[in-house]
């Protein structure tokens, strides 16, 4: 068996682990994008096949931000609920990328970027928490 790397390749055991970690970051972004796009496409097709009026008034929106409405919307494949889920998934995709990046930098023993990425994650979490308190 030939254990030689191709000419010009600097790939060795440490670099393959590093490449695998960044491949995980790529997979997270790709999966989030593909899944949310698929949900959007399916919901738009259903909405076009069965059109309905959606008022988008503050009252209507508040009525649709409850777990039971979301669960029922998933069961009945309500296009509005599916698009809301796709939107949340699309928003969470880069946040999950930050979480995976913390892991990637930790595997690389790159403390500086672990700190920077954890700082970014902390700002994201703080913003969400402050936003939740602001909605009350």
Key words describing this protein structure:
single chain; 136 residues; 5 helices; 0% strand
Can you walk me through this structure?
This protein is mainly alpha-helical. The chain has one domain. It is 77% helix and 0% strand. The chain is built from five helices and no strands. Helix 1 packs antiparallel against helix 4 and helix 3 crosses helix 4. The chain is flat and about 55 Å long.
Main sheet specs:
none
Cα-atom radius of gyration: 21 Å
Mean pLDDT: 83
Compute the number of strand runs. Answer: 0
Oligomeric form of this entry? single chain
The number of distinct structural domains comes to 1
Mind sketching the topology for me?
Blueprint: H1 13-49, H2 58-63, H3 67-75, H4 79-107, H5 111-134
């Amino acid at each position: 068996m030939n254990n030689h790397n191709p000419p010009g390749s600097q790939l060795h055991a440490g670099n393959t682990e590093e490449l695998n970690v960044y491949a995980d970051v790529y997979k997270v972004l790709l999966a989030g994008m593909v899944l949310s796009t698929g949900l959007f496409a399916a919901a738009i097709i259903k909405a076009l096949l069965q059109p309905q009026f959606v008022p988008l008034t503050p009252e209507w929106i508040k009525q649709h931000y409850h777990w039971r409405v979301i669960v029922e919307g998933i069961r009945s494949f309500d296009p509005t609920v599916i698009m809301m889920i796709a939107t949340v998934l699309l928003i969470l995709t880069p946040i999950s990328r930050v979480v995976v990046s913390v892991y990637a930098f930790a595997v690389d023993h790159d403390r500086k970027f672990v700190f920077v990425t954890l700082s970014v994650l902390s700002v994201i979490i703080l913003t969400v928490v402050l936003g939740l308190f602001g909605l009350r």
